[in-house]
Amino acid sequence: MKINLSPFYTVALLGLAYAPAACASYGNMRLEGLTFFLAVMLLYLWGVLLAIALVIGLGKRKVFVIAATAVTCVLVSLLIAVFGDGSATMHQRPLGGGGMFVVLLLATVPAMLVAPFLQLAWHARVYSTRLSVAVLFGAIAIVPVGSALHLLLQNRLENRALDQARALAPGQILPHVIASRHRAAGSWLSPYLWNEEAELKWIIIGISRLGFVESAAPLSADDTQALTLLVQLSTDTGNAHYTWMLEGKLFWDRLMGAATGERLAVAAGLTKDQARRFTENIFVPHADWLCTPLADPETGKAFDHVWTLLRSPESGYESDQYQKQFAAAIREKCGRSIGAL
């Protein structure tokens, strides 16, 4: 997960970060955020052109200054008008590269408005006009440079959180999660540059690949509590997309920890969506975990129930594929059949 940002990739990431990441349904071809993205780019490109115009001395002409001020005001008004279209980008916490780009760009607007007037006024008084050019160029340069530094900072924090999580031993997860949460929440970087949710995201990703978590052996009570806490904290947040391994491990331990006659009841507590996620991410890649438990008839009924959950009339072909993957994995790893297609 180490990410080295070359200048080329930094520029590319800056563009992609506030490009319509939250593109809505492909079916109706709506591109939420596109107008906001275009407004941001127009304003930034105008700032670059304005700086170049001041370099060649166009700010010494009153007509140009009036026209330039009008264009800046129009572009800022356009950005304000479509600001709601970029709400997903600007409400993201911590701010992504695109959000930081917009914040820094808006901070340059006063320089765009003042610099042409400064050049005009100082030219009339026979003063050097280089300062006005330097002010605007400096402000424009800070936008991509500041955004790149923001991405580098986030990358460093992500790698730190990930590396620390990957180094955890059994029994260390819960105190690490608690300490990391408090540290991230109390940091001066929170909430705009880094926050508790971002810290937990990389902890979840790192923990999901720990050997004792990605194992059929049961977790300790403390580690089970830690995984449960992470899943609970991720509910209704973006981190819910990363907890599938933790949820699968918790379900596996709960199923295997139940008495033989109670395993069907545990499996019955799964929703169809949970069954599909566990099948794709746990049961298929780790089908060898199932070989011994499937020898027990009652446990076999529990997994037969999971298999039946993978089909629903509204899912059609996709759910057939989940069933086929599950059945194929059991045949390959355990040499036996499950369910019936």
Structure, briefly:
The chain has helices spanning 7-18, 34-55, 62-81, 87-91, 97-124, 130-166, 173-186, 196-207, 221-234, 244-257, 263-268, 272-283, 297-309, 317-334. It is mainly alpha-helical.
Attribute tags:
14 helices; 341 residues; mainly alpha; disordered N terminus
Question: What secondary-structure arrangement, pairings included, does this model have?
Answer:
Elements: H1 7-18, H2 34-55, H3 62-81, H4 87-91, H5 97-124, H6 130-166, H7 173-186, H8 196-207, H9 221-234, H10 244-257, H11 263-268, H12 272-283, H13 297-309, H14 317-334
Helix pairs in contact: 1-5, 2-3, 2-5, 2-6, 3-5, 5-6, 6-8, 7-8, 7-9, 10-12, 12-14
Shape: elongated
* Oligomeric state of shown chains: single chain
Span from first to last CA? 40 Å
Tally of distinct domains:
3
DSSP helical segment count: 14
Largest sheet: none
Total count of strands: 0
> Mean pLDDT, rounded to whole units?
84
- The level of helicity is 55-70%
The portion of residues forming beta strands comes to under 5%
Taken in chain order, the helices and strands follow as HHHHHHHHHHHHHH
Find the structural class using helix and strand composition: mainly alpha
Stretches with pLDDT under 50, minimum 5 residues = 1-31
Radius of gyration equals: 28 Å
